[in-house]
Amino acid sequence: MTVGFLDLGRPVRSGLVTVDPVSGAPRRVVVMQFNPDSLQRSLAPQATAAEGQGDRTEALRLTGPAVETWTFDAEIDATDQADQPAPDGIHPQLALLELLIQPPSGLLRSNQALAAVGTLEVLPVEAPLTLFVWGGRRVLPVRLTQLSITEDAFDANLNPIRATVSVGLRVLTVNDLPTGHRGAELYLAHLVQKENLAAGTKAAGISALGLTRI
Q: Among 119, 127, 118, 121, which Cα is nearest to 145's?
């Protein structure tokens, strides 16, 4: 009997989703062609005193959730999509990513028109809520802080056909979003999930550290 790979479950893709902050309806879904090989996560505590400036009454206080950032590299390759015609190379996939940090052209034109008639204050364009999805356990509200694209190969018409995209994300917390905002609720759900995961670990005693008492 020949054993193939058909019995293996289809791997879950990672990606980014923009959603309406009120209804939660997805607006744009960016699915990573290949899941990144690695993720770099950094967490910095939010303390009341600056590092190195001691305060006996504030040393253990936290002013809010830790500042969490994610960075990763993703690859896009048109040659892996041989069953689909790609007259524009990977331009469409790159455009999807770039539009996550670009205001819509229609709103820019509207703001230009307001400025042209002498409007004193033109509000900045509000972007949709962006979520980073890494499996079912990690659905995080984020802001893109970095998007760097290295185009590695081109077709005869100079359309990019292979690229490496470096993405930097900052997790949005309840300190960044209004109370009741969908993104704030998603962050709290993520934090509760972390607490539940930590609570499920086997408790260790201080004897494991070579101590009998503290």
A: 127
Which residues have a Cβ under 8 Å from the Cβ of 176 and sit 6 or more positions away? 143, 183
Neighbours of 71 (CB within 10 A): 16
Name the residue with tokens 């990690």: 138
The one-digit pLDDT tens for each residue of the chain (214 residues) are 344 444 555 678 999 999 988 888 898 899 999 999 999 999 999 887 666 566 677 778 888 999 999 999 999 999 866 556 678 999 999 999 999 988 888 888 888 888 888 876 767 777 789 999 999 889 999 999 999 999 999 999 999 999 999 999 999 999 999 998 999 999 999 999 999 999 888 888 888 888 888 8
Contact 46/62 with Cβ under 8 angstroms?
yes
Write down how long the chain is: 214
Residue labelled with tokens 């009998």: 212
Question: What token pair was written down for 169?
Answer: 């994300």
Q: What is the pTM of this model?
A: 0.82
